[in-house]
């Protein structure tokens, strides 16, 4: 089971709407069950550096089937996953990446958002997830 | 002048419609004037390897402001641009990447399509370009 | 709006003059609004390792439209952007990268300087910025 | 013996003047005896994809102390250096990269130019070389 393009575009649209609502400019990436980019949108004027970060957040969330921020809490100095960011061509482990599940609870993809504070990034990512549940 | 996300999404939608019309499964990428990814869609079941190719085609078309196939005709053995593909982290120089211009003729971005024959790829890319003219 | 080569060369010249004034050997990089290298100078005898750092500082400052040191204050262990340096092919987040703005306050590029202490790097970068304001 | 920044800037200036004279927009890179970037200028509006190519041409010319086009004649299918472009993070082996020598005939660096036809690229590169002899 993997997210469809149609579902991915629903998530992107909802995330964009939330980004507009809270007055931010976001990069929004959706990956499928294979962690491959499925849909992407960069809002006009969004940070250039967030393009890559949004995609890495989405991949990171699917690579380990958990929100990126959870991984980040384990990758700190002294933590059990210290510097895991060096793997897979670069991970991003602060909030803004969230797995997307189907009704049966299976992970079918993930969303990654970057362009503002990590709190805002995560809020916009959650809006994308919620649009599919 | 750079393509907007709204324009990019119009191009993606038109390209998808053309892909459906001709019975293909495509990866469709739009980059802006800075060759940065602006919108992307991968149709369900499209070749995984075409994800990267579609993005490289779009970038290549903007890097040199010409259709990718034109560059490919110059990069053949004995050609003046032989093996230019080794630059810029990897170029794709067969058809399927086309610059997008505004009414004044300025390049504002590019589209890259991959997932079928290069003829089909180019047809779908052209449909994306046409939707904005 | 993007910095011109003429402006970039004014910034490089001013930064070099400041580097000489304070007795340091610097690598000085200017990127445009698209974060693409526009002008660069490496002073004779400057650290080889600083060549890449100066360019990454300039790109980082433009990627997020803020001085690199600000990002570095957020990317520390426990910080909200911990290990953001793994994105975008490698960021440098200590001081020495500063956005360049036009009279209207728009970011038109950035300067990155590396070759001495981060305090000296930042002083030289600021001299480049000041030469354009 | 290595090219100085002062010499490199003389070469860049002469190359720019030649580019203007023949009506082209060039990326111009100078590397030193260690094949490290020493000076760089991208003329306003020059192809984005030529930024990397100009630097790779300069490095390639210094890596093997010969004009890039000579290497390209050996890297063709069946040639003795077939696909040498895969080394060193990517070489560019068509014309536009030329070693820079001192009065004693020692290679002290190289220039790489990209932004037009390979003939024009080479003409502009030669102008940079000539300015130092």
Quickly list its features.
homotetramer; 133 residues; alpha+beta; Beta-Lactamase; four-stranded antiparallel beta sheet; 4 helices; 4 strands; globular
Number of domains of chain A: 1
Q: Total number of helical segments of chain A? A: 4
Q: CATH topology of chain A, what is it called?
A: Beta-Lactamase
> What characterizes the major β-sheet of chain A?
4 strands, antiparallel
The assigned structural class of chain A equals: alpha+beta
SS elements, strand count of chain A: 4
Parts with pLDDT < 50 across at least 5 consecutive residues of chain A = none
Pfam families (chains A, B, C, D): HbpS-like
Organism (chains A, B, C, D): Spirosoma flavum
Protein name (chains A, B, C, D): Heme-binding protein
Task: Explain the overall architecture.
The structure is a homotetramer of 133-residue chains. The first copy, chain A, is globular, with a radius of gyration of 13 Å. The model of chain A has no long low-confidence stretch (mean pLDDT 97). The first copy, chain A, has 133 residues and is α+β, with helices and mostly antiparallel strands. Chain A has a four-stranded antiparallel beta sheet with strand order 2-1-4-3. The first copy, chain A, has helices at 5-21, 49-64, 68-74, 118-130; strands at residues 27-32, 37-42, 97-101, 107-114. In chain A, strand 1 (27-32) and strand 2 form a beta hairpin. Chain A has a single domain, classed as Haem-degrading domain (Beta-Lactamase). In chain A, 57% of the residues are buried. Chain A has four helices and four strands, in the order H-E-E-H-H-E-E-H. At the B-D interface, helix 2 of B face helix 2 of D. Strand 2 of chain A pairs antiparallel with strand 2 (37-42) of chain B. Chains A, B, C, D: InterPro entries: GlcG_carb_metab_protein (IPR052517), PduO/GlcC-like (IPR005624), PduO/GlcC-like_sf (IPR038084). Chains A, B, C, D: This is Heme-binding protein.
């Amino acid at each position: 089971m993997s997210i469809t393009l149609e579902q991915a575009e629903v998530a992107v649209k909802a995330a964009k709407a939330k980004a507009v609502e809270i007055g931010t400019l976001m990069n929004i990436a959706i990956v499928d069950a294979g962690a491959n980019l499925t849909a992407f949108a960069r809002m006009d004027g969004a940070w250039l550096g967030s393009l890559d970060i949004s995609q890495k957040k989405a991949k990171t969330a699917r690579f380990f089937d958990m929100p990126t921020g959870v991984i980040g809490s384990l990758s700190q100095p002294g933590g059990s996953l210290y510097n895991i960011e060096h793997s897979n061509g670069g991970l991003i482990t602060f909030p803004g990446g969230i797995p997307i599940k189907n009704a049966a609870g299976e992970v079918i993809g993930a969303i990654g958002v970057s362009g503002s504070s990590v709190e805002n990034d995560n809020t916009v990512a959650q809006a994308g997830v919620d649009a599919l549940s």
